[in-house]
Structures are given as structure tokens and as C-alpha cells.
Amino acid sequence: MTGPLLEVISRHWGYSTLRPLQQEAxxxxxxxxxxxxxxxxxxxxxxxxxxxxxxxNDLTVVVSPLISLMKDQVDAxxxxxxxxxxxxxxxxxxxxxxxxxxxxxxRIKLLFISPERLMMPSCVSMLxxxxxxxxxxxxxxxxxxxxxxxxxxxxxxxxxxxxxPGASIHAYTATATETVRRDIVAQLALRxxxxxxxxxxxxxxxYRVLPRREALKQVIGVLDRHGGEAGIIYxxxxxxxxxxxxxxxxxxxxxxxxxxxxSNEARRSAQEAFAAERCDVVxxxxxxxxxIDRPNVRFVLHTAMPKSIEHYQQETGRAGRDxxxxxxxxxxxxxxxxxxxxxxxxxxxxxxxxEIDRYxxxxxxxxxxxxxxxxxxxxxxxxxxxxxxxxxxEDVPExxxxxxxxxxxVYRLRQSFGIGHVVSxxxxxxxxxxxxxxxxxxxxxxxxxxxxxxxxxxWTYQLVAQGFLIQTQDEYPVLRLGPSSREVLRGExxxxxxxxxxxxxxxxxxxxxxIAGAGEGTVNGQLFEALRSWRRRVAEAxxxxxxxxxxxxxxxxxxxxxxxxxxxxxxxxxxxxxxxxAYGGALLEQIGPFAAS
Length: 597
Ligand code: ADP
Known about the structure:
Layout (H helix, E strand, L loop, with lengths): L1 H12 L8 H10 L3 E4 L6 H11 L3 E5 L3 H13 L4 E4 L5 H12 L5 E4 L1 H4 L2 H9 L2 E6 L14 H4 L4 H4 L4 E6 L4 H10 L6 E4 L7 E7 L3 H11 L4 E5 L3 H13 L4 E4 L5 H12 L5 E4 L12 E6 L6 H8 L9 E7 L1 H10 L3 H15 L4 H8 L19 E3 L3 H14 L6 H9 L4 H5 L16 H13 L3 E3 L7 E3 L3 H5 L8 E3 L12 H4 L8 H18 L3 H4 L2 H10 L4 H5 L6 H20 L1
Parallel strand pairs: 1-6, 1-7, 2-4, 2-5, 3-4, 5-6, 8-13, 9-11, 9-12, 10-11, 12-13
Antiparallel strand pairs: 14-17, 15-16
This protein binds adenosine-5'-diphosphate.
């Protein structure tokens, strides 16, 4: 079975190997056994139904939630020489009739349909007549109430089994929770489905959690590390988006804002500019989410802690979908958890916030911690791709002593003051509030005078996160001692606090040759840029996103090996027959001046 599949994949997509579980998933699609395929973002779910469709005699129907993405998906397939088409409300009735005729005449292998269209009786009869025997449900978690993207129109898909009793149904999702998976199987009435659950780790992502000190400066630091690359900056509130995007614009960074408070027009144009690579950085609330299919996002930066690990996974999942290295930076303050707690009432949500809070101040490998959360084991000792394993954070020396000083200051202040005042007292500040209350006479006054204000704040919040201190949720929150603070004061427990290591700044990107397919050292940067702007021009002329022409990895491989013949080009990742004949000549022209030198 692998032979013909690999042959089809090489001819149309220009790939030479299969990714984990793809073979099993494709075998299920070919043999008509129902399946649920769970792979992380970028794991290659689409190929699992696209490649088998080409080896089958009948029609494969793909159900996909976003009409706006359907066009891109179809364009990408057509560019690879695959007979694909779409049917949804964005088309004229003339176009729809033409597509129907093509489907009935067997000229289409893959037909993308929106769920609401699929359920129309006329569509059902047409698909029966066109011998639709395979249904691929993309983003299948949209069918579940328990998921993060429930779509009522997906619920109607429950009728599919009865409408097409002889067909096989294949569900694809990146969702990690058991409940949602079970719900998908039940809702779609999958029959003895093959369950394939992949490894959730994203080895090409480097995770960093940094204490938020001077957010703007830290954001600029990340932007400068990624000059000219694509990234998404997530903020908690709309007002933060507005402030940050204008601060960046006034410093000459072209960053577009995106949040639900902007007009539809402004949002659409930001999204389009990002997809077409006319804009590289978007500052957004979580409203900027589904529908971003730009695969070369090189960084995702959170300016505050997200709501849960599921949200974090979802949002960082948008980085590095092309499998090349990407960075996820989270700027964290202990106060973030308090903000979230004040906004959520449900016990379950509070538990989730506590989990991500623990992740943020945690001291274990980030890849390991994330996998563990989703119930999987991380197999190696070090990931070499997170702040912890890269040695970018370190233990604060004498953390127990520091913790004792902070806790006793809270105690001396009769557990009645907020963090700002506690820090001022510990630092030995001179101000009105301290003088009038005689707090400069406390034994804890100035105990941490050698440390910076934001350091003490960080440590205090870490103690809150670890439960040794409690911050009340009143209008003016005050610090109180937590249940086990006594043990700390008596020296019965050892405290661990973390801080960024002074000597170790995040590197400029590391490229892992295995993932990149070509080591950065060998990539000709000028050629890569020339190829990128060529790609942008071609994409614009064809009204498709640049990645439909070629992904970054293809351009990188070209820029590394400088092929000078069509045969050499055909061996490059992502260049199949169709793209070779469409763009081979133009590529060689671009490469020419660089190959000669
Ligand atoms: P997912 O839907 O799981 O997020 P995609 O299907 O979009 O992921 O695949 C991510 C990228 O990886 C796409 O560019 C896809 O063409 C590519 N890809 C998929 N399978 C392979 C493979 N076997 N070899 C190389 N690249 C692949």
C-alpha cells in the first residue's frame, strides 16, 4: 500500500516520507474503516485524507468549518495538480452548478463542503449520485460542546451516518481532551473507529516564560530577534492591544491591531494583510484565532498569562505550523492569575487557571510539563528547546531566607496591605504612607533593600502562586499569610524561587537541522529573501496566499542547495510535478545570479 501512496505524495506534494501515524490513518481511509485521527497542529492531518482520495475511484467529501479557509485549501490542492473543488455560499449558483456537474461526471476527487450546505437535501442527493463514499471531517472538535470551538452547524453532522449508511467517516482534530474525543465518536456515530492519537509534543517550538518587567521593552526584544518574520502578540484586553500596537507603530514597527471591538472591515483587512504577508506582526486578543493558516509564524508572544493550558496550547499552536523552528514567549506576572480569578466564577475554570499558573512558575522542562498535562510522557531528559533546559532561568540563591523576609513583612503589616506597600517596606522606601504609619520602624523595613523592586514583586507573586501567601480578591487586594506559611517562617520547608539567568539571554533562533531540513549556516540569506519576494509577487498575481505557491521550508532548501536544473529542483521538499512545471523555470531564473557567484 505504501508504494502507490508514496508515489502519489511525491508526484503531487513533493514529499518523500510519511509522518508518524499518517500511514495508519491513510490505510483506514483507503480501506473504508471509520477513524478518529488526533495529531497536533502541523502534524499533517490533511494529507491523511487528501492522498488516499487520489487512489480511490469515488468522491471524498471534506467538511471544513471556515468558508474563508476553504478557498485556500482548494487553491493549494489545485496548485499541486489535485482535482479539488469547493461548494459553499460564497459561490454563485452558476459556479455551484458547474462544480456539481464536475462531481457527477467524476472529474473531482476532493470536494470541500460547509456543514450547512452538506445537510441540504438537494446536496445529499447530488452526493449520493456522485458516489460519495468517504467523508473527512476536519476540525472535528467543532461538533462538541466541550471543545473550545463549538459550532452549532457541526452538530447537524450527526445525521451523516444515517444519510450515507454505506460511507466511511473519518474525523480529524488536534484537540487533546478525552471528553471531546469521546463526544466526536458518539456524535458522528463512528463504527468501530480506528483511534489514532499522536504525540502532542511540538519539538520545533521553543517555550520561554519570563517575568514581565518592562513589557514594551521585552516585546521589542522579541520583535528584534525576529526581524522580518511573522508573529502574533496576544494581549489580555482590547485596550492593551490598542496601547501596545500604537506604541509599536510609533517606534516604526508595522504591527496591526486585531480585536472584537474593531469594525469587521478593519479585522478582515488585518487578517488578509497577515495572510498575504503584507504585514508580519499582529497584536491581538484571542479573537484572532481560527482562520489563521499562515504556516510560517515564527513567534507567538503572550504579554500576559493565558486563561488555561488548553488555551495556551491552542494559541502557541499557531507558531511553526510548517515544522520549522519557532518561539513561544510568555510574559508572566503572579498578578495575572489574580486577574483571571476575578473574571471567572466556575470552579473548573479556576482550576484551569491554577494549572497554567503552576506551569508558569514551574521549574521543569516546558515540553515535559505540557505533555504531562495532556496525559503523555516526554521521552528524553532535556528538550534543548525551553528556557529551563537551555539554562536561561536559575534558582534564586537563599530563596528560603528571602521568602521568610517577605512573609514576616506581611505578618508585621498585620496582613492588611497590598503588594506595592509590602515591597516598599522591604526595600526601605521613604514615602508618605510609610512615614505616617511608622512602618519605617518595623523590623522588616529595608530587609531586601539590595534588590530591585520588580525582583521582590516577582518573588512575592511566586510565593502567592505556591500558596505561601494569599492575595485577597477585594477592590484593594491585600496580602495574607497562606496556611503553610508558619512552616516557612520556622525554617521547616525549603523554598524555591526562579529568576532569569543573568548571563544567558535567549539566543537568536537555533535551527535544528533535522527539522529544518537544511542548516541555517548553509542557507543563502539573500537568495532566500529574493525567493520570498518572488513568491509574494506570484501569490498576489494569482490571488492566493504565498504558502500556496511554496512553503518557507521549500524556499530554504533551495537557498541552501542552489539547484541549477529542473531535475535537482524536483528533489527539493515540496516540489511535485505540477509545481515544477508551473514554477520551475521561474525559480531557476531567480537562482541564476546566485548560482553563478
Ligand atoms: P495539520 O492539519 O495537522 O495542522 P497540515 O495538514 O496543515 O497539518 O500539515 C502541515 C504541513 O506539513 C503542510 O504544509 C503539509 O503539506 C506538510 N506535510 C504533511 N505531511 C507531510 C509529510 N509526510 N512530509 C512532509 N510534509 C508534510
